[in-house]
Amino acid sequence: MDRENVAEALRDVAASLERLAAALEPEAPKAVKGEERRRRFRDWVAGRAEPFGKRDAAEAMGVKTAPDDLLRWALGRGIIEELDGKAAAGRGGGGRPSRQFRYVPKVKERRPPKVKESAPASEPVRGTGKRARMIATDKRVRGLIDQLRADGFQATRAAGGHFKIYDSKSRLITTLPATPSDHRSIDNARALLRRKGANV
Q1: Is 0.70 surpassed by the pTM of this model?
Q2: In order of start, what are the domains of the chain with their CATH numbers?
Q3: From CA 176, how far away is CA 144, in angstroms rounded?
């Protein structure tokens, strides 16, 4: 190896080390604005189990004054609620009670599944020129579904020739085959449905 090759290799190593040092050097903290600031505040509030005051919120956000704009924003969105004077335990300066807030967790409402009623066997399927399939080909399954519907349960047609049975609160109870291959499957389904409150 001659001197020029060694010098070039050393320059390449030095350039690589500079790039590595620049990549490892921490970036200067950027000013947190707008949506990012709101997201941080929402995350901080959601992690608190106990009520908090304006001073706590200011400390958490790393500012000296209370973030009134964030409090107004969170109150308007229903993320937090203000406690009344009796529930507020904190005290501000001068012996006066400070405003206290607490996080209001969102409760997701469960929507019941959409119930699709199968077409009765007497009505033709539009556009096909064919008649609709029967609801269930097995007499025992048809009778069981009729009893369940009379009892307030819902039965929907599922893929592969099965029926999904839901209770009055739209919770899935069991699945029934339209054409059971085993004579015990209907009796087992009846026993399960009785345990769930059905009168079958």
Answers
A1: no
A2: 34-103 (1.10.10.10), 124-195 (3.30.920)
A3: 10
